[in-house]
Amino acid sequence: MQQYNNTTIQQIFKSFNNLNVLIIGDVMIDAYMWGNVNRISPEAPVPVVAVSKRENRLGGAANVALNIQAMGANPVLCSLVGDDEGEKLFSSLLKKQKLSAEGILKSKSRITTIKTRVLGGSHQMIRVDEEDDAPVSEKETAALFAGIKKLISGKKIDVIIFEDYDKGCITPELIRSVVALAKQKGIPVVVDPKKRNFMAYAGVTLFKPNLKELREGLKVDFDSGNMKELTKTVDSFLKKQNIDSALITLSEKGVYINDKKTKTLIPAHVRDITDVSGAGDTVVSVAALCIALALPAETTAVLANLAGGLVCEKVGVVPVNKKELLAEALKLNS
């Protein structure tokens, strides 16, 4: 990271408080069943978890909203949920977190996505998913875009995040419409992609896949340890898709940033990794806030990398702690 004085870093974090972030994507409920494992089931060779606690949290694009909120900015969430019991629970969780539901649409043809994780101690034993991942209808896409257009017209939006979990909320048509509108309004667009729409995000500002998503999306294999090979792959992709920059998360190796001028690997920090769930949500959230402030590419990558590492020290999907992140940034800067 380029050298800043501590006052400048503190000012960057303070500036996050003035930002409005539009988040478009697949929302879900992250449900947890916590317990202890003391025996194997007599019915099958599987552990028996004696459940002692249950918890429901906002997940997917809604976890990005929580990360944006935790950094002091104002998240505006746009998505589609079912018209079911899951939606009632989702709405109550939004209300509890003081998040607006103005951009949330209900669909009678879909169910609300729920991912249930069963944990024995701090170890995840199994995950059960309830979902409908078929692309939403043209009618629902049009309704979602109409809502997005209304939100952008009605308030100052500093950056847009596409949080794509391949659950069907985001379609190529929605992407094209939103990106065109964002260009017209001068709003940067940041993407956390998945495989299905990987090549649909032409013309965005920042593209943030992990290594697995990059390989699957481009249908290529390469040595991530070979910087020359990684740079060549990303350079080609950015040029073909007319994308300004890419931030590639490389797990324990750190993150790679490429905005055509800056091409740098930011090493990961040594940490006690407990759970990587939700780290990508945190990385894209912090990166988007940095993009909204037009910070240098390397600064964006360093802060996003620090944030992703911090949440990996916590169990389950949790948002980043702003005070902890600021402390880490100040420590790194010194």
Explain this structure to me?
- With 334 residues, the chain is an alpha/beta fold.
- It has a single domain, classed as UDP-N-acetylmuramoyl-L-alanine:D-glutamate ligase.
- It is built from ten helices and 13 strands.
- The protein has a nine-stranded mixed beta sheet with strand order 5-4-1-8-9-10-11-12-13, with helices on both faces. The chain has a four-stranded mixed beta sheet with strand order 3-2-6-7.
- β6 (114-120) and β7 form a beta hairpin.
- α1 packs antiparallel against α10, α4 packs parallel to α5 and α9 packs across α10 (322-333).
- It is globular, with a radius of gyration of 20 Å.
- The chain starts with 5 loop residues before the first helix and ends with a helix.
- The model has no long low-confidence stretch (mean pLDDT 91).
User: What does the main sheet amount to?
Assistant: 9 strands, mixed
CATH fold-level topology: UDP-N-acetylmuramoyl-L-alanine:D-glutamate ligase
Number of strands: 13
Strand content: 25-35%
The number of helical segments is 10
The H/E string reads HEEEHEHEEEHEHEEHHEEEHHH
CATH class: Alpha Beta
Strand arrangement across the biggest beta sheet: 5-4-1-8-9-10-11-12-13
Mean pLDDT figure: 91
CATH homology superfamily: Ribokinase
Name given to the CATH architecture: 3-Layer(aba) Sandwich
Low-confidence stretches: none
- Which geometry do the CA atoms define? globular
Radius of gyration of CA atoms, rounded to a whole number: 20 Å
Termini gap: 11 Å
Helix-strand category? alpha/beta
Q: What's the number of structural domains?
A: 1
Q: Roughly what percent helix?
A: 25-40%
